[in-house]
Batch of 2 targets.
Target 1
Amino acid sequence: MAIFPAKKFRPSSYESSVASRYRAALAKHPFALFGLPFIATMVLGSFFLTPATALRYERHDRKVKTMTEDEKLGIGKDRRRIDLKEEYYKLAAKDLDNWEQKRVKRLPGEHDGVL
């Protein structure tokens, strides 16, 4: 059985390329060439994205209007009071046994749901 050599075949042009120098340096200093740029990207990204996030929430706050005390007091003035007994008697007075199913008319061009 043949034994494969441990040394990989590399063409002669590979030794002078940037990839070969980076691979050799990465083997000697893995944190400096891989870990440090990654951590720097995460930290700097956090600083650059903070204003964008703040802008998002400021825009949302502008959409939500705060109400004044006068508006809060005037909201429920014109509403009808609801009495549960009254609503119960209204429903009890209706004839729920005799009813007929009616189809709702569709708008022009709307699909009718039948295939």
Target 2
Amino acid sequence: MRYISTRGAAPTLDFRGATLAGLASDGGLYVPEAWPTLSRDEIAGLANLSYVDTAVAVMAPFVGDTLTRDELRGLCEQAYGRFAHAAVTPLKQLDHDQWLLELFHGPTLAFKDVALQLLGLLFERFLTGDNEGSLTIVGATSGDTGSAAIDAVAGRAGIDIFMLHPAGRVSEVQRRQMTTVRAPNVHNIAIRGDFDTAQALVKAMFNDAGFSRRFRLSAVNSINWARLMAQVVYYFYAAVRLGAPEREVAFSVPTGNFGDVFAGYVAAKMGLPVARLVVATNVNDILHRALSAGDYSSATVVPTATPSMDIQVSSNFERLLFDLGGRDGVALAGQMGGFEASRAMRLTNAQHEGAATHLTSASVDADGMAMAMRWAQEHANEVIDPHTAIALAAARRQTLNVPTVTLATAHPAKFPEAVERATGMSARLPKRVGDLFEREEAFDTLDATFAAVSDYIAARATPRS
């Protein structure tokens, strides 16, 4: 398995190289040179497997010869052994055709744990015996990526992590899960700006020749292919339990940076019978406008009760546009360059029509979110977080006539105020993180400028050997 950049000018890498690189050197994102496929018999054979064995079967083609199956299984056993539910990502039924896939049983109570617990172990494995020096992870978070990434790499030798979050725009639980981790290799940065600004600063550091030569940079955001690869697994795990490959299954995904829903697209390309992927956005609806009208134009970010979706530039959308546009890296580089200059772009006919074969979309406002939270509590006795509610509202608007799985991406206790406003219910943190509010915080607040952030990192990171 080889990996190529969506912008066509970066070196082709193996799985190890793509994992450690994160962002491609030409500013693009790594994707497999070709999509591996599983036969109907192979998909049917997943039905009785554990989550770990499902993960090995689904991810092995992407890993290639960089790890043996036994090595991959060992990493998966270690990663998912920390989850609080034996099924890792259990399914719950809401009514005759609506289901929840609970992705929040990891150590930081969010779906990001499914990928990042594994990614931290992959970094450690690939750095063993490496002579290129320490790894400097630079990431931006709208809430959950930061805490999950920090938990995954805190205290690991040869790794420093610098995580940017928009000051005042993540929930208190999300912030504390990052800022109370007291490990010498963990550095939290609150920037005076929004998530899109934080994400742009991260990309600028990767693309700055001097900075990237000085430090060995890598990414934990969903720009890192290994993260998306790990997320493909739970689409297969859920679908086979609902009848795949004999029956199609639809998924509704709360969407900000497009990574989680792109993992579903990958599952479909691998042969999983996905009837439809519902791209659920809040009022920051750039993806809904792009998919429904072909208009990928950035607007001002509106702060909402779903901060992980308060995004107007969805990095992983580039991967979809590349795949639907004939995998023409030169053409996509020009298209993305135009967007980065003007913050506006029209999808080509091939991209718009190709997306419609797999994806539909919906934008859900605060009232729709609250109504979905109340419906889940009153009709199914389920308390859900606001992001999950956005996706459930979008799912219930569809007429798909197949089992529809809403991805429950965060524990409701991460957003207690929003839950209580909508349902009157108090969502409590699980005992394993119950002392969160007693821990001391540590973070630095910086201006949202390249100079301020890059100077801060340069003063603390370990340069290349």
